[in-house]
Structures
1.
Amino acid sequence: MTDDDLEESVRARLFSLASGSISPEAASAWALRVMDSDAPELRDERIRTALDRLSGADLMEGPGQYLHAREDFDAWAHPGRPYRSRRRAVQPAERETLATVAAALTICADDVTRLLTAARTPS
């Protein structure tokens, strides 16, 4: 396979993934098979980056929830196009809650015991 052939195959898979005509699992499986080969085209950084993205298309963020969405796939297929993430910004109240939880997770065991006792909460 030549550089152009593999590059065209990668591009076709990216567009198919972005359009929804192939599943994230199919795109990932294909990319992993190509990455496991010793094709000399894998030395091309652009091809490696695209294959790396394709191989992670089926990553899960939680049960039944993909890490990447169509917007991500579209951005991979169209580098340079303006990209809007589906993830919203963290609001100030959420940031404060997260900071409080993070601080609570760093307190020592003696303080946890003291707080649980004071709250009359069984440990």
Note: The chain has a mean pLDDT of 81.
2.
Amino acid sequence: MKYADQNLPEYVNPFVDDQTDHWSAADLEWIDACPVCGCSKHELALSDLRDFNCHTVPGSWSLWRCLNCTARFLNPRLTENSILRAYETYPTHTQQSERRSSSRLVRAYRAIRDGRLSSKYGLPASQPTLPGWLAWFLPPFLRWEWDYNLRHLPKATPQKNRLLDVGCGNGSFMQLAKQAGWIVAGLDFDPSAVEEARNLGLSVQLGGLECLRPEDQYDCITLGHVIEHLHEPVAMLQKLETHLAPGGVIWIATPNANGPGYQRYGRHWGSLETPRHLAIFTRQALLECSDRAGLRPICWPRRGWNLALSFAQSANIRCRGDRLDHWRQQLQPSLVFLALLYETLAALRISGEDELVAIIGRKK
């Protein structure tokens, strides 16, 4: 990646305060090309973006749209050193405990879900289950969400069961994969998250790909909501590709700039996560990134029932200026209905794209 001279006027948004009011020149970098495809042609997509999610990072930011791959990216952006300060109060993804319910309908729903996860992924059930094939009588977006939570893993076998989770957080997904028979390893930069994962008995290293040995090979590598945080996403995938065992796959999921959340809420979309999300991908951009990294897409899996949360968070940012933490208690019925409508249309392939774009790739 080549960096443009920091004084070039085309990279300073004239509609917002100068970002250097809050950050020194050494904290910021201006890039002269899209970090996904390398194209130098782009247009302003959104301006005056703030840290609406955590309210801890000062400054206003501009999001640009690549005219080649359609990715959106921050320019200027924080450097690899200065961006660490933006994560000092960033909440690590936590595992939500499932509340018990006396409702027969809820218990039946969970029994069908657990039956499907047991038969398809080998995940042991903690309670009596119903046959997994009953899931086909439920709305498809429910199955998509269950599969997404297991990251569409193949069934583990004794010779093909090594998994690496990059950006593993507190290890909640690693726990599920381990229960399903995978030998799991994780990487993360958050010391508190790494400590929490290690307390669960998981093998997690503090740091990035430099922690891996050249001989480390994995049958599955997952990046769940990680690639949008990277300064050099193509270089990262290229390095991970060298750690794929023969026949291994890389699973990537990231917010979709062509999804209904971005289209509906714009600068208030909760998944913008300014300035921590450096690039917001589209299907075309993720395909371009994977192709440049030497990966061949074999599947474009879908995520299911998640729009209600996204809409609730985004609506709260737009109305109140902050992210909605207790969305289950405050979610408006109108948003639930709207999200359900989007999900139904997506299931029927009538509407546009999903809120999240995911890809499973293999070495070319």
Note: The first strand starts at residue 28 and ends at 29.
3.
Amino acid sequence: MTVCAPHDTQSTPAGAPPSASADMRRAAFTVTVNGSYAARLALGRGADGWFPERWTLDGPEPYAVSLRGKQPEEADSEVLPLADGRVLIRRRVAERFALSLLYPAGPGTGELPLGAIECLYLSLLPPAPDGSSAYALVHRERSTALWLVHGGSGGPELLATVPGRCTGGTWLDRSGRLLALDRELDGLTKAVVVDLRRGGEVSPLLQITEKSNDRLLMAELDSGLLLVRSDAPGTDRLGWGVLGSSRPVRFPGCLRLPDAHLTPFAAQPGQGLAPEECFVAFRIDRGAAGSWVGVWRPVTKRLQQFTGLSRVARGRRDVDRRRGAQAAVRHARGAVRAGETAAAGGDDGRVRPHLRQGRRTGGRRRGGRRGGRSGERAAAGAAATGTVRAQAGLTMDTPIVRVAG
């Protein structure tokens, strides 16, 4: 299952966290690649304040465990679940960012410090494909540093420095080698690929026109489907293309809703070499009118909207009725089966793209999924099952790494 948290698509000053997007990330779940765990920063009642919350999703019923510390967390903290059940937390402490692993320990919470990075601003990247590593971006004035903050030999490790200001973060293979970032450079934002096995070598990924801003929102690895946001058609539009293909990027009219913002949050796996058949689930935000879920696939050229799922899309506290992250899969699946159709439209505004595929090793595409699972049933993806192996306890000093601004 491809699941991603919403991220900001607007530029922000270096060193300043984007407040609106930060609020979205706190409200949403971050799910591990294998679908076994999710985490979020939850708001307690009364004076309890913010605290990390871990959800177990691969059992008969999803359930949550609060990972409260001795004091409430700050509202700008970030959390990232790992496949072994621990949760990485990033906290701002004075002028540095401290990193720790949290885990249930009897009635309380255990904490393992990993280190700290002194910088203006640090943001965690989406979960890595291996489920155990964690990466972060450090934003400088004219460049962005990519750090391995967990999974290395000891403490945070600087992996690469990319010219320009980078946001986003999408993995393009299952080996954790190719990372796509949206890089703002010389007034334009383009998606680029960072090759972690070649010392952080940067190469272009998406260039629809020379002067367009082209961002990557999601990549579904089985089918190669890419969801992009670009102003190449003249205004900011959602489009889709295929990784490594010279086929035109299409901007469907059905994904252009008046006074609404669409954010993809899940895609159907198992559609090997058939991107047109891949279902994609969107969160639809329409200001005071609220938010809800939409389901779309390229071949149908229509967007189905289900207004009863707004709390699932936002990931807010509604544990009894929605049961958190797994409910997004369950309700989106049922909504597709119901066949309720809302806005429909045809493709328009085709623009010939320039799509480049980075070196792909270990990113072999798989054929269609075996079994009787229908596309509707997997509209928002199904959590992959597998054995979750606990890592050995880590013992290390807590280094503080200074980063030039």
Note: The longest strand covers residues 108-118.
